[in-house]
Every structure is written in C-alpha cells, then in structure tokens.
Design goal:
The protein has 366 residues and is an alpha+beta fold. 39% of the residues are buried. It has a single domain, classed as 3-Layer(aba) Sandwich (Rossmann fold). 27% of the residues lie in helices and 20% in strands. The strands form four sheets. Strands 4-3-5-6-9-10-11-16-15 form a nine-stranded mixed β-sheet.
Length: 366
C-alpha cells in the first residue's frame, strides 16, 4: 500500500502570523455585519456616481436603499469584462462606470490584455492605499504569514507592468523604512542568481515559470555558491499557482512557498497561509460569489464561476464582476485562525459553453 503523508499542518507546529489580527480573525457574525455595511455604502456610491450603475439598477428595479442582506446583491445583473471594455471604448478614457471626477484620481493600473482590449482601472488616493501604495494593507496581509524579520530583503522578479501588484511592489520600493525591496523584472536567470548571491534577499516574489527555472539553476550550483543564498520564503503569483512546483532545497530544508491570486481590476483576490489549504479572501475588501452557468450559487466545495464585488473602491467600483475564472470555496474555518472564506485557487478559465453570451449594456453617461 502506498504511503500517505499527513498534511504539513499535522506533522509540525505551524506558526500563524497576521498583519492585522483583529480584522483577519474577526468573528463571522461581526465580519458579515461589516460586509453588509460596506456593500450598502458601495451600492449607494455607485448609484449616485455612475451613469452605468444608475441605469442598470433602474432597469433591474433595484433600490440600493432597500438592501437588507448580502443576498440582495443577486438582484443586480452580472457585469462582464466586455461591458467594461465597451464602456471605455465608447466614452474614453474610463467609461460610464467612473464614480468620481478626474481631479480625484491618483493613478491608473491596467489589465494585461490577454483577454480582449486592456481595461483601465482608475484609482483614487484611498483606492491605491489598499493595494497599490507603501504600507498597503492587502499587500502586507499576503506577505505577512511568513513573519517579518528585521533583516528581510525582498526580491521581486515579476515583469512589472501597469497592474496592481506591480504598482504595489514599485511603491513599496520607495519607502524610507521597512523591508527593502529589489525590483528585477526582465532580468535573465543568470542575473537573478547574481542578485541572490550578492544582495542575499530572504523573500522572493516570482511567477511559477521563473521560480522553476531559478530552482533548477540553484540546484546546479556548487555547495559554496548555494550557501550564499539566504532565501527563506517564496511567494508565487500567476495563473499556474504553485501546486506543480518542486520545493527549493537550501541548507537541507525546503523553502516555504505561499501562493497569491490577484487581478488588476480588483487587486488581491486571495492569499495562502502556512496551513497551505486554500486562498484566504480579504472579505472586508472583496465580496465573492461562486456561480453556476445559470447564475445561481453553487454548493460549498463545488466549482463555478468567480464573481467579485469590490467593497472599498471609490473611483470605479465593480459590482458582480465576472473575472472569467473557475474556483470553489473550502467549507469551514482555517486552522490558522483566519475567519475569512477560502478558495481552492483559480482552477481554470470559463469557456464560452459555460456562460451566457456577453451583451454590451445600453447605458451611457447621463
């Protein structure tokens, strides 16, 4: 009979660390109360500030002032990537979902353009503070499970572009104190190895592909060269996740790996903790639904389409936005103590046969 190893969390004590323990471990009842408050505020803001949402809510006979529970959001039509792109093409640059005037904008990030025309994501100063600025709340929630040490140095190998995570990393590099960060996106593997040896970073931010290539090259180094590498933790961000990656073996022990998932439109979707059982959704910033092809919620643990609503974005809140990813929730609370819901990860992309046809909305600026 094949040997079945117990989960990591059962073989040794797992150090659970938090960036914002009171919020990350908020009792479920209090968390749901906070989510409802933030949802009501977002819906009211969207209705009053956006021509698109004003028209969409009226067409659906939806009154934001009458929202009594989270479930009431199901009365609002789903928002597609095509609709957002159509809006921005018709009323450039930001379309009719914009809820503030241009003078209130602080910066803009953008989707990769891998699926259709890139979508512009305008941000106010408050928006950027959450996931696109030094000391970003969500950025630190994702990285904090490792536990910050005074001598930590971060190396980011991501090819930095105009997306939210890149903007967060670049902004962090301008800090006067805290964890130093080295930006090396676009460097060759040889250059990355030279940085590991000379600057001796301890935390690596990278993609699955680059992580695999660097691990292979590190394993080929001479013993004295490998001893100069001090990486103790790796954060993986990318469509493939970390599930098929071979762990790094340095000084006789595996380097800790955690996964993050994010999208330029909404920021951080979820981050792994050291229990290694799913991605924690920051529910005080993001409302997540997992729906079947008819738009109904799936049962816990079943796969469906990921639909998100931003709860704190001022410039361009996205309400019931279809990201195009497949996911599933994990029932129950995580042993780490976090009370926020968990996703199994981004398990694939929605195919055309799984959804209704995308139809652009008729709404234009008032």
């Amino acid at each position: 009979m094949a040997r079945c190893d117990p989960p990591r969390s059962m073989t040794k004590a797992v150090p659970h660390r938090f960036h914002n323990r009171p919020v990350e471990t908020l009792p479920r009842k209090d968390l749901d109360r906070l989510r409802l408050h933030l949802l009501r505020r977002t819906l009211r803001h969207a209705y009053e500030g956006s021509a698109h949402y004003k028209a969409a809510f009226k067409d659906a006979r939806f009154d934001p002032a009458k929202v009594r529970s989270i479930d009431d959001i199901s009365k609002i039509p789903l928002l597609t990537r095509f609709e957002v792109s159509f809006s921005q093409s018709s009323w450039p640059p930001f379309g009719d979902l914009l809820c503030v005037n241009g003078a209130q904008l602080s910066t803009t990030v953008m989707t990769s353009g891998n699926v259709g025309r890139p979508i512009l994501v305008p941000l106010t100063e408050n928006d950027s503070t959450y996931y696109c600025a030094p000391d970003s709340e969500l950025w630190y929630r994702a990285i904090h499970p490792f536990g910050r040490k005074k001598d930590d140095i971060i190396l980011s190998t991501w090819s930095h572009a105009v997306d939210a995570w890149s903007a967060s990393s670049l902004a962090l590099s301008r800090r006067r104190r805290g964890m130093p960060i080295v930006i090396s996106g676009g460097a060759t593997v040889e250059q990355e190895l030279a940085i590991l040896a000379r600057l001796r970073p301890t935390i690596l931010l990278t993609s699955p592909t680059v992580c695999s290539e660097m691990r292979k090259r590190v394993s080929e180094l001479r013993t004295e060269e490998r001893e100069r590498i001090r990486v103790r933790a790796i954060i993986i961000g990318g469509a493939l996740g970390r599930k098929d990656l071979v762990p790094w073996d340095l000084q006789g022990h595996d380097v800790e790996m955690l996964e993050v998932a994010y999208a330029a439109e909404v920021g951080l979707i979820g981050h792994e903790c050291q229990v290694h059982d799913g991605l924690h959704v920051p529910e005080d910033h993001l409302l997540v639904e997992v729906l079947d092809r008819d738009g109904s919620p799936v049962a816990p643990g079943e796969e469906g389409e990921l639909v998100v609503t931003t709860l704190r974005h001022e410039a361009m809140p996205l309400i019931r936005y279809r990201l195009g990813d497949i996911t599933a929730t994990i029932p129950g609370q995580c042993p780490c103590g976090r009370t926020h819901m968990r996703l199994k990860g981004l398990l694939g992309k929605v195919t055309p046969s799984m959804v209704q046809a995308d139809v652009p909305g008729p709404n234009g600026p008032a």
